[in-house]
Amino acid sequence: MAADYDLVIRAGTIADGSGGDLINGDIAVSGGKISAIGQISGKGREEIDATGKIVTPGFIDVHTHYDGQCIWAEELSPSSSHGVTTAIMGNCGVGFAPCRKEDHDMLINVMEGVEDIPGVVMSDGLPWNWETFPEYLDIVDKGKRDIDIAAYLPHSPLRVYAMGARGASREPANDDDLALMRKLAREAMEAGAIGFATSRLSIHKTADGGSIPTFEADVAELEAICGGMKDAGTGTFQVVLDAFVGWDKEYKVIERVVESSGRPATFTLASGNDGPPRWRKVLDMIDRTHANGGKATAQIMPRPIGLIAGLELTVHPFILCPSWAKIADLSVEEQVAAMRDPELRAALLSEEFEHGHPFNALARDWNWLFPLDNPPDYAPPKEMSMAGQAAAKGCTPQEIAYDRLLDTDGKGLFLAALGNYENGTLASAHEMLSHPHCIPGLGDGGAHYGAICDASYSTYLLTQYVRNPGALSFELAEAVHMLSHKAAKAVGLNQRGLLRPGAKADINVIDLDRLQLHLPEIVRDLPAGGQRLHQRATGYDATIVSGGIIRRFDQSTGARPGRLIRGA
Predict the structure, then answer these.
(1) If you classify domain 59-303+422-458 with CATH, what class do you get?
(2) What's the number of CA atoms in the CB half-sphere (13 Å) around residue 422?
(3) Which CATH architecture has domain 5-52?
(4) Which residues are registered as beta bridge partners of 89?
(5) Residues spanned by CATH 3.20.20.140 within the chain?
(6) Which residue in 66, 47, 46, 57 sits closest to 23, CA to CA?
(7) Which segments of the chain have a pLDDT < 70?
(8) What is the per-residue pLDDT across 525-558, written as a single tens digit (0 to 9) for each?
């Protein structure tokens, strides 16, 4: 007997992405689309028993950096390991197109510094067989991958392409420069860019410590480029604002660009750990934008923003101590052996950091540096910080951190919490996520290979805020809405993130009772033998893209239905 459908998912608890009531029933899929939802009598060529499981739309990760990985790899992990079926790359204004041959090294320098991707990985892993942004999209379009990908036009390469050395050295753009960037932006949107992205963040540095090309670019330049989106009638403006100079000044950038272009904006927002709750004022600013007819959406990390530190990673608590240079080139085993020497121990415990990348200092913020074990606790009690443990034991935080490295044979990891852990709780993150114009984001998949592994935030949101309810909790339907349709709408993908007849069949089947994050681990699968942090999860029974099952029981099936999304 012939099958009625390609796939039927049976007897699941369906959270359809709208935020509405849960549905108990089946989902039928044919031709890559959802055919029916309800009590389905017809048979599927393949069937999945979802009894006791939740069924959700595929999640939308709006902040990734898979610009390189989508070319040299077929799996966009970690994102695809955590229910994500659509990822948006090109964030923070860094990327690889448009680009002339003579500027390859410059863009590698920018990406290496801002996103912690080793230069050799990019030089060896990318063919660089494009110049314009539309040509880059064509190359991406030809590749095979597990999930769908969309791309912003990134500001740094655009500026250098239009202005040459003047753009790289951050000279002001003249009228001709602005006209050219506006024209190129329109062409990028018409070729399929989902929007335009930039960064104004002062700690975004090149690999050699310089400022990135877009730092302190005049707002008039952003208005001109976003004018290209206005001309094309499509596109979202993504920006990383420099909160360090104050939201009163920086948020005006969004207001001006949204008003002049008529295009929506999205940006990252976080709470400080110690400071006053300035983020509440920003939420008011967002409300004002919407009241004035504009649209702005803040991206919120559901857990502390920060770094993972360790001897095998980009940063650790002693990496910039002068004496570390003596053993920096040794293997981890040899480093640990050397660290047991009393003389070296005394030196490393007494020395202060030398100058280096601002991220390095996070691994010395003892009040907000915590051990990270398996299973990882991203909301640890304050007394577990290096400073908290030191106070209890009557020693220095340096000693606590040092001994942890020795006790774990150099394998111990630390969580350096930079933000979203105000007063040692997730209350600020929860309140921000509860706002109607905020979505989960800032996973940074495809970047920060040796320091950040936050692309697992979707799994964390479900386990921390849904499965383990307390004062800081979300209903399942609400959490799924945040991760799917609400996120999709923020970047103009209004038809994604919903389970509806006729919709694209991007679906997760999740065993919520069994859902669990594992400790980040180092995998060595990058070009040129490079390594990266990866984080696995248990509990994703199936992840489906365009009707094809890409993952089953937390393992890749080898299916590659993912495609480039051209335009919103």
Answers:
(1) alpha beta
(2) 18
(3) Roll (2.30)
(4) 151
(5) 59-303+422-458
(6) 57
(7) 1, 357-358
(8) 999 999 999 999 999 999 999 999 999 999 999 9
